[in-house]
Write a structure and sequence with these properties.
- By secondary structure, the chain is an alpha+beta fold.
- The chain has 2 domains: 123 residues, Trypsin-like serine proteases (Thrombin, subunit H); 93 residues, Trypsin-like serine proteases (Thrombin, subunit H), CATH 2.40.10.
- Helices cover 23% and strands 38% of the residues.
- It has 4 helices and 15 strands.
- A 6-stranded antiparallel β-barrel has the order 1-4-5-8-7-6.
- It starts with a helix and ends in a 15-residue tail after the last helix.
Length: 280
């Protein structure tokens, strides 16, 4: 009995010690500048056919519980933002249709959203309406759809993963100085496993992404959107860090867009209710 109590006590001490290490270990997983530059150079080399559109696919996304006007200026494709209110979440969103629809991660979305990117032929800022926001029971099962009343210059096509491929390409934001969108190369380390009756799957990948890149697109080599980066997770007891992607059912996404377009044509459109947020 005494031996069992000692063993239980020792296990609790080791677990407590491991939990105190988790935040520090996770911070060590933050990608360095050289990692990002190398992954960006590789992506540009491998995606030469899509280079003219890459910087216009992704949008900076900001969200707040209260209205928070932003001021910005653009310089050769880079964006300089000012007057960002405290408590505002930062992320990315991806244009998926020229009539203003974007995908992002659900947990960075708040009541008031704004996106910055290529609209109506130039870099612009616009408030965004939350069309859809969903959370699943597992970490990584989340998706949000936004809409702006502007023309998106280079929406990305939605598609599916190559069953035999392992390469993916993601979008990130270089926030040192002026904010600039970059595309970086990554590798799938755990493929999505669709479950019956579910419209979202989870995929793990290796790519130098961090918290400010959440909501960015995960793209196939063919230039099609296959998922949305939603966060960084660390496995215990291995402390292995991976980047988590939500892989939605693209037919389901398309049906949500079509339903919202029909509602918008009604004299007094009623927005689709969002699913309640779960504690994350």
């Amino acid at each position: 009995m005494v031996g069992r109590q000692r063993m239980n006590f020792r296990s609790l001490v080791l677990l407590a010690f491991a939990l105190t290490l988790l935040p520090g270990c996770l911070s060590l997983a933050r990608p360095g500048k050289q990692q990002r530059e190398d992954a960006s150079a590789l992506a540009k080399k491998q995606l030469a056919a899509h280079r003219s559109e890459l910087e216009k696919v992704t949008y900076l996304m900001f969200a707040s519980d209260h209205p928070a006007p932003l001021e910005f200026s653009s310089h050769g494709g880079k964006v300089d933002l000012k007057s960002i209110s405290p408590g505002m979440t930062l992320g990315l969103a991806t244009g998926i249709s020229d009539d203003g629809y974007l995908l992002t991660a659900a947990h960075v979305v708040k009541e008031h959203c704004y996106v910055v990117g290529w609209m109506d032929g130039k870099p612009a800022l616009s408030p965004a309406r939350v069309v859809y926001q969903q959370f699943g029971p597992e970490f990584g099962e989340e998706l949000a759809i936004l809409h702006v009343d502007k023309h998106l210059d280079c929406p990305i096509r939605m598609g599916a993963l190559d069953p035999a491929g392992s390469d993916v390409y993601t979008f990130a934001c270089d926030r040192q100085g002026e904010q600039k969108i970059i595309v970086i190369a990554g590798k799938i380390i755990r493929r999505p496993e669709p479950m019956p009756g579910k419209d979202m799957s989870i995929m793990a990948m290796e790519a130098p992404l961090w918290k400010g890149d959440i909501g960015g697109a995960v793209m196939s080599k063919e230039g099609k959107l296959v998922g949305v980066f939603v966060g960084v997770i660390q496995s215990y007891p291995t402390f292995k860090v991976s980047r988590v992607t939500c892989v939605p059912d693209m037919d389901r996404v398309q049906s949500i867009l079509e339903a919202d377009r029909l509602r918008a044509k009604e004299p007094n459109p009623v927005p689709e209710p969002r699913q309640p947020q779960q504690n994350r």
